[in-house]
Amino acid sequence: MRFQISNFKFQIFLIVFLLFAIHCSLFTVVFASDKWSGVDESVIEKFAKEHGREAKEPLINTDQGDLLLFVFLLAGAVGGFAAGYYWRSLTEGRSRKSEARIQVTGNK
Amino acid sequence: MKFQISNFKFQIFLSLFTIHCLLFTVSDAHAMHISEGILPFNWALFWSVVAAPFVAWGLYKLKKQSSIDLSFKPFVGLMAAVVFIISCMPIPVPTAGTCSHPCGTGISGILVGPAISILIAAVALLIQALFLAHGGLSTWGANIVSMGVMGSFAGFLTFRALRSLKINMAVSGFMAGLFADWATYFTTSVELASGIKGDSPFMPLFWKILIAFIPTQLPLGILEGAMTAGMVVLLYKKRPDLLVKMRVLKPEEVTA
């Protein structure tokens, strides 16, 4: 099944994607210097610590070295594939239905 | 001029894009969920008890809807993937110097209804707590209530209210995403303040936490609003019949 995107829209999408990619890469550099902590650290854990509560290690601690990168890679691959797969089954389902409808009306 | 992209290529592109987003934005789990061990046992249990009937309601609705309509499951699958990806994608907020992530429950609340959206959020939060060091198992209930219950209902109700006032699709979607995000952080502030306050009064601590969230969540809520509006409008253009089926739109609104 194929769908059409106008050239202009695709260019806009590409620009947004590239900006986002640059933004993400810069963001990684910033992360390396331990800035840009998440609000879980900067707000939740900060206030919790002030009141005598501290975060514990998770049951399965994947936050060790590059293990978390690997887990995020898997999560990204599975999540992206699932989104694409279901989007395809939704859009293909419609096109098949409309093709069938065209055939039925054509036969009449 | 027009050119064509096959659906398979689009799927590959989407997977690569998602991997890129998740990989290039991770070093630690820069999340917004309440981490493991932050809430005392009694409060963690309380929020789990509050969340349980909503999750059960979601399971019941999913079973009921999928037995009526076969195309419902792929739609729920799509929404689950979208909520999972969005809710583990940290975004830096330069004005605050911190990071947080959108929730995604605004869009799922609008499209599949609050019950199933809560179930989707519960599954996403469980996977994140188990494998991504993101949130926690003891705080799962609290995170379901803030992101799942409050986010989904805020998104759903805002969208329906604005649509009933004949506000256009994009603006309604934007406001729904915005309020879903803000409602999540409002509830997180309530949960955190009530859980950690000890002998100190609730209100001053609640306001302190809420105000601390504002520099990050104010712009992020706007971003989530824009994303929600974009997704609603995309579906309106691509599959308006689905929006009618999900009772997001009335049939006359599509034909008009």
Which strands sit side by side, in order, in the main sheet of chain B? 2-3
Fraction of helical residues of chain A: over 70%
Taking the alpha carbons of the first and last residues of chain A, their distance comes to 25 Å
Topology order of chain B in helix (H) and strand (E) letters:
EHHHEEHHHHHH
Largest interface: A-B, 69 and 81 residues
Helix share, percent of chain B = over 70%
What does this structure look like?
The complex is a heterodimer of chains A (108) and B (256). Chain A is mainly alpha-helical and 108 residues long. Chain A contains 3 helices and 1 strand, in the order βααα. Chain A has helices at residues 7-32, 39-50, 67-107, and one strand at residues 2-6. The radius of gyration of chain A is 23 Å and the shape is elongated. Chain A starts with a strand and ends with a helix. The model of chain A is unreliable at 27-33 (pLDDT under 50). Chain B is mainly α and 256 residues long. In chain B, strands 2-3 form a two-stranded antiparallel sheet. The two termini of chain B are 28 Å apart. Chain B has helices spanning 7-23, 41-68, 72-86, 105-131, 140-164, 169-196, 202-238, 240-245, 251-255; strands at residues 2-6, 91-93, 98-100. Chain B has one domain (35-251): Arp2/3 complex 21 kDa subunit ARPC3 (Orthogonal Bundle). The model of chain B is unreliable at 22-30 (pLDDT under 50). In chain B, a hairpin with a 4-residue loop joins strand 2 (91-93) and strand 3. Chain B contains 9 helices and 3 strands, in the order E-H-H-H-E-E-H-H-H-H-H-H. Helix content of chain B is 73%, strand content 4%. The chains are: A mainly alpha (108), B mainly alpha (256). Chains A and B meet through strand 1, helix 1, helix 2 and helix 3 of A and strand 1, helix 1, helix 3, strand 3 and helix 4 of B.
